Amino acid sequence: MNPIPAAPSGTRAPSAPLLICTDLDRTLIPNGAQPESPGARQRFAALVSQPGLQLAYVTGRHLELVQEAMVAYDLPPPDFIITDVGTRILRKGEAGWQALEAWTARLAPDWGASGPADIATLLADLPGPYPQEAEKQGPFKLSYYLPPALTPGPLLSSIQTRLQARGLRVNLVHSLDEPRQLGLLDILPARASKRHAIEFLLAGLGLASENCLFAGDSGNDLEVLVSPIPAVLVANAAPEVRARALALSASAGLGDRLYCARGGFGGWNGCYAAGILEGIAHYHPELVA
Ligand SMILES: [Mg+2]
């Protein structure tokens, strides 16, 4: 893999660089049911502009929707964007955002000669899932809605079995669109996930897990939340996600790598940016002093 140029070094010790990776919807973007503590997002933006810190957005959105959100919510400009649930890694180049082709090349073998349209055809007769809007589909991402009453377990097994039989290796990511009470299902190449993409990025930057901090709120963040990467779950996360994340990280012996924001830091409620800041304060108190 081509090494990724590091950010210009600043006043922080070059031995301890930090890459802050955050999910967007309902993690940095306050588009959930809970209120956002006034000033938290602005404080986050000021914090990540410190020299020596790098910022990556890690999201299910595609690039254009990330850029829309950056304008609509006045989000700080990131150094990297991991879009489409980890299927694309982009870095800012002289000609705008450029995908890391090495990552795409890593994913391609999982689907062999099949493209998303072939996979959709293979699954067309399954009752329940229906395709999300065209703009939410990608070359390595098929996205479906699931009816709220559907228990996802059996459906996911039959999708897995059916695609495996065709030699496809897939990663199925199920999460919940809480406000709309809809199930969401992403079918990705087996190697594609937010966690694998972050680890690929870290390796390219020559950084260890300890030089990273991840923030998330929901099902498609779970794999990173319970990984060796230090992580914070924002306080607006659903109680089921919190319970699951705590149980999985404890059983993996990684309980010290998951912090659940509870509110209080800065007098804030621990939701969205306030939760991310609370997590940064937990792992790196010197940064928020
Ligand atoms: Mg989210």
Q: How large is the count of helical segments? A: 10
Residue runs with pLDDT of under 50 for 5 or more positions? 5-15
Percent helix among the residues? 25-40%
Bound molecules: magnesium ion
Mean pLDDT: 92
The CATH first-level class of the largest domain comes to Alpha Beta
Strand order of the largest sheet: 5-4-3-2-1-10-11-12
Nearest-angstrom radius of gyration?
A: 19 Å
Sheet/helix structural class: alpha/beta
Strand content: 15-25%
Biggest sheet: strands, sense, closure?
8 strands, mixed
CATH topology of the largest domain: Rossmann fold
- The CATH superfamily of the largest domain appears as HAD superfamily/HAD-like
Order of helices and strands: EHEHEEEHHEEHEEHEHEHEHH
Secondary structure topology:
Elements: E1 18-22, H1 40-48, E2 53-58, H2 63-72, E3 80-83, E4 88-93, E5 96-99, H3 101-107, H4 116-123, E6 130-131, E7 142-146, H5 152-165, E8 170-177, E9 182-189, H6 194-205, E10 212-216, H7 222-225, E11 231-233, H8 239-251, E12 258-260, H9 272-283, H10 285-288
Parallel strand pairs: 1-2, 1-10, 2-3, 10-11, 11-12
Antiparallel strand pairs: 3-4, 4-5, 6-7, 7-9, 8-9
Magnesium ion (MG) binds at residues 23, 25-27, 217-218.
